[in-house]
Amino acid sequence: MANDARVEISSSLDIVNARQQGRAMAHKLGFGGSEVTLIAAAISEVARNIVEYARRGEIILAGVQHGAKRGIKIVARDQGPGIPNLTQAMQYGYSTRNNRSGAGLPGAKWLMDEFDIQSKVGKGTTVTMKKWAGSLGNQDD
User: What is the 3-state secondary structure (H, E, C) of 41-57?
Assistant: First the structure.
């Protein structure tokens, strides 16, 4: 569909770059302004987790199509420490860093239409998210 983009993530500048590339691709794929904002926010959350927990990883952006539906697929992948308790990590307000409340992964899930996370301790984490044009997110979750 659209050209895929791959962004190496190892610093806050990379988070900004991933957001910008995600915004540009979403615009190209026909997403509206509020949808573009949601996509950029979800990219920020998963990219920030890579920097904070794994130190380095990548974000892959791709246009996807399913029948008449058009969308964007975002894959965030790292080879960091992994997440020992996914259930706990997916709870709103849970954070392992400095007692901060985080919207991180649950926030990203809420912003997107499809969300999958795979993590193995000592091996890393892969988050796969999709947003379909014309849908404003998983507000029924």
Answer: HHHHHHHHHHHHHHCCE
> What residues does each domain of the chain span?
5-132
Q: In sequence order, what are the residues at sequence separation of 6 or more whose Cβ sits closer than 8 angstroms to the Cβ of residue 76?
A: 9, 43, 46, 47, 49, 50, 57, 58, 59, 125, 126, 127, 129
| Separation CA 10–CA 6 (nearest Å) | 13
Order of strands across the sheet that contains 57-66: 5-9, 57-66, 69-78, 124-132, 114-120
DSSP state of 83: -
The phi-psi region of residue 37 (left if phi > 0; otherwise alpha if psi is between -120 and 50; otherwise beta) is: alpha
> Which CATH architecture is the domain 5-132 placed in?
2-Layer Sandwich (3.30)
Q: What is the pLDDT of residues 13-39, one digit of tens each?
A: 999 999 999 999 999 999 999 999 999
Q: Residue 123 — very low, low, confident or very high, per pLDDT cuts 50/70/90?
A: very high
Tell me the pTM. Answer: 0.88
